[in-house]
Amino acid sequence: MDWNSVTGNSIRSTSAFRPVIKRPKRLLQNHDNLLHYIQIGLSILISTVMMFALAWWRDGLILEHYRSLAVISGLLILVIYEWRGVYRRFSGRIDTCLRLARSWLLVTALTIVATFLTKTGNDFSRMVILGWGAAGYIAQVIAYLLSFKLSQRYRYHRKQPIRAVVLGSYWLAEHLVESITSNEWMPDRVIGVIDDNRDGLKGWTRDPVPYLGDFDELGSTLQSREITRVYIALPITCSATIEEICRKLADIPVDVVWVPDIFAMRLLNHSVKELNGLPLISLSESPLVSQSQALAKSVVDKVFALLALVLLSPFMMVIAFLVRHESPGPILFKQKRHGWDGRIIEVWKFRSMYMHVDDRVRQATKNDERITRIGRFIRRTSIDELPQLFNVLQGTMSLVGPRPHAIAHNDLYTKKIQSYMLRHRIKPGMTGLAQINGLRGETDTLEKMLRRVELDLEYINTWSIWADIKILVKTPFSLFSDTAY
């Protein structure tokens, strides 16, 4: 087929007639299957049966307040499990069991909170509630594993797999093939790959998935192999080819799935949204763009910062006295640094150096003559950063986030490290993922700074309140670093 003639005719026809674009029923579908709803229903049934059984065991009957609590817990399971995607996501059994544990713990906690809010807590037996929490989770795990096993047997023995091919042989196609073949939930079976690129095919390493031909043989290959689904996994540079292939596949009864090669770009907290039927792919976005997420992080920051200031204020007063007593000068050292979205903020620290004038900003080094005796101790233990709790209360910093660097350092490394300033797409923190992984203090090589930036971007990409809590718990164990001077 002459692709050029097809392209030319299509361009002329579309310029003469533009169809009205109607919003599809639903663009971003979850593809929930029957098993997903069965598993949620089983969890609700197990929760109810466990509560009723334990109530009967203790009292010899099921009292009204236990029936009411069972209804509340069932509704919580329906909402939370759906929200958390406990059974919907394609993942391994261990990951699902861990996700189930976290979601069930949330259900249990909110159920107990409901008894306090309704002032009925004294009506319930602690033994029944604790037993319901423990036995309910174990029973749900068993039910999930059994349903998983039965679903596997059904697919293997009753349901025909979806025969699929992948168009492309680059790394994106390899990653897609590996993801499909290693996922036990996917009904697809990749028969082979089709591509014109000989260089990509030379490096093709997926032995069970053979090369079936080039794009000129696409129609005949799909027919002879009885293919029902086509995955387009071509690089973004092949946009014209992708468009031509889609036109040709429009006349062939197959499902067409496009896997956009967005990973060729530097991504930050990427996501997919929908606007009136139009797909919106966010390639770079702050995780705090959501008001609910920003509010949650702000509340956690300010509550913990205020609590820490109340508990540590006597100790901080002692440090302030020692700083002032050892050398003349202000107690606090204030330095302008880049904050959220690159805005200039003023970061507070206990002064740890003698008063001096530097022509340029220099990182502290080992045996640095500028550092005082008390300064060496408070820098080594990060006590000098405690005044940043006031920055957290001001809202210019967070407890957890990428550490703010001096503006001069940012100007230097922006020219040397690609996407360096992306680390400012979230509030800077008193501690962070890089710090608990041994990258505190001096970064005397470009490789160390590059690794710190990579960890900062990983933190932004995977941010959650739970991740912040884990970093805060691990921070005390990382304070005594050999590179903190």
List the helices and strands and how they pair.
Elements: H1 3-16, H2 34-59, H3 64-84, H4 93-117, H5 126-157, E1 162-167, H6 171-181, E2 188-194, H7 198-202, E3 211-213, H8 218-224, E4 229-232, H9 239-249, E5 255-258, E6 271-275, E7 278-282, H10 291-326, E8 332-338, E9 344-350, H11 373-380, H12 388-394, E10 398-400, H13 407-414, E11 429-431, H14 433-436, H15 446-461, H16 465-474
Parallel strand pairs: 1-2, 1-4, 2-3, 4-5, 10-11
Antiparallel strand pairs: 6-7, 8-9
Folded structure, characterized:
- Helix content is 50%, strand content 11%.
- By secondary structure, it is α/β, with parallel strands linked by helices.
- The strands form four sheets. The chain has a five-stranded parallel beta sheet, with helices on both faces. Strands 6-7 form a two-stranded antiparallel ribbon.
- The protein has helices spanning 3-16, 34-59, 64-84, 93-117, 126-157, 171-181, 198-202, 218-224, 239-249, 291-326, 373-380, 388-394, 407-414, 433-436, 446-461, 465-474, and strands at 162-167, 188-194, 211-213, 229-232, 255-258, 271-275, 278-282, 332-338, 344-350, 398-400, 429-431.
- 26% of the residues are buried.
- It folds into three domains: 34-157, no CATH class; 161-264, NAD(P)-binding Rossmann-like Domain (Rossmann fold), CATH 3.40.50; 289-478, no CATH class.
